[in-house]
Amino acid sequence: MSISQFPPPASPSPASSSRSLASSSPASLSSSSMRLWKPAAQRNLRNQWSKLSTCRQQWIATSSAGRSHATSLVNSYLSQKYMPMMELGVLSDMFDIKKKALNKLFKQQSSYRINLLSSYKELVAVVVEMVNASRSLRCYTKPSSGSLIQFSASKEDSNDAGDCGGIAVFSFWNVSAFEKMAEELVEMFKREVMLKRLLVMELVSLSSEVPQPVNISWSVELYQGEFDDLTKCSLYSVEVSEPILPQVKEDDLGVSISHSNQPTAEILQIYLTTWIAGVNIHNHRVDEILALVGEEIRVTF
Amino acid sequence: MEAVIRKWQQKFRKGKEEMEKWESLQVRWVSLFRNASSIIQRLQEMQNHGSYGALRCLKGIEDAVVQQQMDQLEIILRSMKSVLDEFRGCVLTLERQHRDGLQLLKMEPSKRRVERIGVKPCLTDCLEGLSILYNMHQAEYHLKSSILSALSCLILKPSPGDLNALQYLVVDQPNIPKDEVQHIFDIIFAEDVN
Questions:
Q1: Which residue from A190, A256, B26, B134 lies 20 to 30 Å from B119 (Cα-Cα)?
Q2: Could you name the domain of life of the organism this protein comes from (chain A) (predicted)?
Q3: Among partner residues B57, B59, B69, which is closest to A273 by beta-carbon distance?
């Protein structure tokens, strides 16, 4: 579970290499700076992990809103599809009743589509925030002219690994231990958001018109700026100019995505089930990680 | 005599509280059942690779979805079990009211057991009411318990017809006819009616 399935993040995070750098830096080992570093690092870790925990809650809420938009979209699409075959009984005498109903359903779908896309956009935003938080767990010394030592989240001295030579920040864990936990957590959400992307792509391109009016493919942005967001999460591959392919298992290399034309009601049912299932997010493990971290930093999430 | 009747009415008030608790459990029970039933109905489709459309390109998707849904189902069934235990708690309380009533009645001379003052119920009415309420809820508890085992069996062999029939029983609570319950309370609290 802890092995990265995506290219390593752009920011410097591999702990092992920077650790040796840090121990060679005398500044980060002096006891007075260590004394000052600890509270700053503790504060930072508490803040970032609270953010991660909040993001998880937001994910749950947004994913559930997305599910209900997706369900409405599917239901409306199916009604539209079956409308021509429907027996309307006494209503069939009404002028243009089917045409009017179809029109209404058509309009409905376009608003559900917009809602679903905006839920997806929110999900991506949540993952971006998680990735940012998980990459901001280090605490760097800020060079200052005065005698006061200050700390910052950005690296300003190439010798400073931001982990104070790998010392324990609270009781037992050093910064890289926190990073490992954060990475494991964020990785699940990164993978799930790509699976959701595939589902959104399939659902928003539902149309009973033949040929299909909009041709959405994996390499097309679902909303403006999507690829910038995905790049921030290392979910966009520059080499092939499209997002990383979704995967469920770690050893899956990902075959190309083929868009299914006019999926059946059964397939749509499975799409919705897959949305609900959230197979990449192992909730008990997420709870466990948050509980372990919470215990270490003495915060209840 | 008035004081004795009041004591009995108190038992019915306690019974009423218990039945309100039952009602709120019933709401949870119905929703748990619906969730479990919809997962069971989807299970077969979930195991059919052909139903995955564009998701087919993801290796292991079926197993992952089925596994997750089975885990979810297990959680739901466990919650149903604990709601069932709470139902049992209600039945036990109703049983205690009835048993206490039985003891109470034994202490009264037989003449007073059927004595009636105005619209007030006689003591035999009271005992009979408590007995009916207890029996209804006990029978319904047994039904719910069988429904839960039937549901667990359907996981292996899903049948939409059976699930629908069970759902009907779950929602309907056939052992607790509402009008009959109301009739009992109308007799016991006759003076409060209107």
A1: B134
A2: Eukaryota
A3: B69
- Collapsed DSSP state (helix, strand, coil) of residue A242: strand
Say how far apart CA A266 and CA B15 lie, in whole Å. Answer: 48
The residue ranges of every structural domain in chain A are 29-297
User: B75 at the A interface (CB within 8 A)?
Assistant: no
For residue A198, which residues of chain B lie inside 8 Å, CB to CB?
Answer: 54-55, 58
Probe site for chain B from A74, A248, A283 (most B CB atoms < 10 A): A248
Q: Tokens 């408590």 belong to which residue? A: B130
- Distance of residue B147 Cα from the nearest chain A Cα, in angstroms: 25
Assess B51–A contact: CB distance below 8 Å, yes or no: yes
Please report, as a single letter, which amino acid is at residue A39: P
Please list, in sequence order, all residues whose beta carbon lies within 8 angstroms of the beta carbon of residue B30, skipping any fewer than 6 positions away.
Answer: B170, B171
Is residue A18 scored above 50 in pLDDT?
A: no
Question: Is-contact B38 B155, C-beta < 8 A?
Answer: no
Task: Report the alpha-carbon distance of residue B94 to residue B131 in Å, rounded.
Answer: 9
Give me the pLDDT at residue A7, please: 46
**Complex ipTM, two decimals?**
0.78
Q: Which one of B54, B69, B72 has the shortest CB-CB distance to A258?
A: B54
Helix (H) or strand (E) holding A23, with range, is helix A15-24
* Closest residue in B to A281 (Cα–Cα): B68
Q: Give the pair of three-digit tokens for residue A294.
A: 């919470």
- Give B69's contacts in chain A (Cβ within 8 Å): 273, 277
Rounded distance between C-alpha atoms, residue A38 and residue A22, angstroms: 15
Tell me the nearest-neighbour CA distance from B180 into chain A, angstroms.
Answer: 40
Count the residues in chain A. Answer: 301
What is the model's pLDDT at position B67?
94
**A195, A248, A271: residue with CB nearest B53:** A271
Dump pLDDT digits (tens) for A184-223.
Answer: 999 999 999 999 999 999 999 887 665 555 667 899 999 9
> Given the DSSP bridges, would you call strands A150-152 and A140-142 parallel, antiparallel or unpaired?
antiparallel
N-terminal to C-terminal alpha carbon distance within chain A: 23
Kindly state the tokens that stand for B142: 């047994």
Taking alpha carbons only, the member of B73, B20, B80, B10 closest to residue B42 is B73
> Residue B76's closest CA among B17, B16, B32?
B32
The answer to whether the Cβ–Cβ distance between B55 and A249 falls below 8 Å is no
- Sequential pLDDT tens for chain B (194 residues): 788 888 899 999 999 999 999 999 999 999 999 999 999 999 988 999 889 999 988 889 999 999 999 999 999 999 999 999 999 999 999 999 999 999 988 888 888 888 888 888 888 999 999 999 999 999 999 999 999 999 999 998 888 889 999 999 999 999 999 999 999 999 999 887 65
H or E segment to which residue B161 belongs:
helix B160-172
Contact B58 A278 (CB under 8 A): no
